[in-house]
Design a protein that fits this description.
Layout lengths: L2 H25 L15 E9 L8 E9 L5 E8 L4 E5 L5 E2 L2 E3 L3 E5 L5 E5 L10 E8 L4 E9 L1 H5 L10
Parallel strand pairs: 1-10
Antiparallel strand pairs: 1-2, 2-7, 2-8, 3-6, 3-9, 4-5, 4-8, 9-10
């Protein structure tokens, strides 16, 4: 075989591959990009709810349960709420912390008077009775997103019961 043929054969193979891949792409639609957050193996988030502030402009609060059935501790770096400006993880004594930890095979409950999420800049489009999305972001970059019920402050304080008696 001549040197020209030795050079030409690999070049021809590359050109054929490129040519065929161009045809293949023309027949198939491009896959839609996914912006869905990743899941975290062994971790589930349940009971997510956003309690609106009693006075517009004040912060609201978010609560949920994070069940870590994994074999290692997980650390929550932050929690995002769609339609809110920013959030902070707080302890029961209202002090902000930079993360919250869930030991293996335990459930960490974000609830009133305990660790919870303060929600600042609550958008006017967040209305009681509807839902928003709550995304838990872990220190390793994994994320878990769930729907969160939106509740009015009064209904949340009374366990969902109305303060106004029904006729």
């Amino acid at each position: 075989m001549t040197k020209a043929r030795l050079f030409a054969l690999p070049l021809l193979a590359v050109l054929a591959t490129v040519s065929l891949s161009g045809c293949k792409g023309a027949d198939q639609p491009e896959a839609a990009a996914s912006s869905a957050p990743e899941g975290k193996p062994g971790v589930t988030v349940t009971g997510a709810r956003l309690v609106l502030p009693a006075v517009a402009g004040n912060p609201g609060a978010a609560y949920f349960a994070l069940d870590n059935q994994g074999k290692v501790m997980v650390a929550i770096a932050s929690v995002a709420v769609t339609g809110a400006g920013k959030t902070e993880i707080h302890t029961g004594d209202m002090k902000p912390v930079d993360h919250a930890e869930a030991e293996p095979r335990t459930t960490l409950k974000f609830e009133p008077g305990q660790v919870h999420v303060m929600v600042f800049g609550v958008g006017a489009d967040l209305k009681a009775g509807s839902e928003t999305e709550l995304t838990v972001i872990f220190t390793d970059g994994d994320k878990v997103s769930v729907p969160a019920k939106i509740e009015a402050m009064g209904a949340a304080a009374m366990g969902g019961m109305s303060a106004v008696p029904k006729p």
